Amino acid sequence: MRKENIPPLLTHEKLPKLLNISSQKLEESYWKGIIKNYQKHDLEAIQFKKDLGPVESGTMVIGGETIHIIRGFPKIRRALLLQPALNKHFSKEVAVEEKMNGYNVRIAQIDQQIIALTRGGYICPYTTRKATEILDLDDFFQNNPEMVICGEMVGTLNPYVSHYYPEVGKLGFRIFDLREKQSNTPLTVMDKRKLLKEYGLEPVHLMGIFPVDEAPEKIMGIVRDLGVNNREGVVMKDPMMQLEPLKYTSSQAQALELEYALSYPFDLAQAFLFSRIIREGFQAYEMAESTDELSERAFRMGESILYPMLETIKRVEKGEVAAEDLVIEVGNENEAEEFIRHLRDLKVMAKLVEIKDGKAVIRRIHQSTNDRVKNYLHGGLY
Ligand code: ATP
Ligand code: MG
Looking at the 3D structure of the chain, how many domains does it have? Predict the structure, then answer.
């Protein structure tokens, strides 16, 4: 019988109520692959691969003494034009937080154990180890066991999104939300900051709370300055956190992403290119730049598309592999291997290059770029 294969946790009598999804729907979603059994780390857990009713993709349900539900971090939609979008979307005030460029992490306590989940609802061994090293979380979870800490892991020793911040350096964690397990209800912007302060935990930078009608102009200035410093942009939030937040990013952030995508044109560029170009078009329109500023933007875009691709073609021509090297800090070879296994679970092709001075270099290979560039270099037709 098929039924025997269903993970017992999925048929737990309390689950439909906790998730607000019928048991029939849960079962159906399992057969459709929307819900998956998660069998790592000796946990009894299930993972949501897609949104399902009110439940976000990336949600993880973990069995144990009690059932823990760590909801997925909600998707943040983007404003292309600040003025009309803010006017339409917010009512009185807008809290502007810096958007940090790293990777999304949710930290929670499960039966006395602290775990760190990445966006899709995977327990990442490196992130779990580093989060507990960087942050002193025991008191916080002692007093707030039902809270999920949502933040960005940033810095250069970062296997997913490596970006240099002078105030962070190698690796740091900045918190942008405190949410309740199961319901995913966030604290208000000020309550969050107050609670974090009590426990010495670092929030993202709050750049101001502005009346809606002044906000677009203020934010344009803020994002311009952030861009000049190679910083990503902002997330705009209802101070009460009753409305969905919106994001908006600098031209330089767009350029950095284009650069990355075009370094591996046949693996990443198609998914990246169109949306980044659209963002630039609308930003250029709204920022009403001088001729000089506009041509600077045009050059930035063009250079970030052309040069990285050219670089990659030359590398492959020389016999090198189209690959990027990730560097992480490890205590021993075992930790490096464990992380590589984790990457392989995520379908990322990676291998260990070397371990030196406590750092592991892991090579992530972009196979399609490699194969296709080689093919064209040998006369293959497009
Ligand atoms: P998604 O919106 O699905 O995460 P994405 O991977 O394209 O899509 P981003 O474009 O980076 O994500 O924007 C959303 C992400 O920004 C959040 O998931 C979060 O990790 C990150 N982030 C950084 N700073 C903040 C902040 N101050 N408030 C909220 N999110 C932030
Ligand atoms: Mg991001």
Answer: 4
Domain stop point among 40, 63, 86: 63
Q: Which ligand is nearest to the CA of 118?
A: 1
| 204 within ligand 1 shell (Cβ under 6 A) | yes
Q: Please report the atom of ligand 1 found closest to the CA of residue 174.
A: 24
Strand order across the beta sheet in which 359-365 lies: 323-329, 359-365, 350-356
Kindly report the pTM of this predicted structure: 0.95
Residues 6+ apart with CB under 8 A from 174: 100, 102, 151, 152, 154, 202, 203, 204, 205
Question: How far, in Å, is the centroid of ligand 1 from the Cα of 104?
Answer: 7
Query: In the chain, which residues have pLDDT < 50?
Result: 1
Residue 362 Cα, ligand 2 centroid: separation in angstroms?
21
Q: Give the domain range for residue 49.
A: 3-63
Tens of pLDDT, residue by residue over 298-333, are: 999 999 999 999 999 999 999 999 999 999 999 999
Gap between the Cα atoms of 318 and 311, Å rounded: 11
One domain, residues 87 and 164: yes
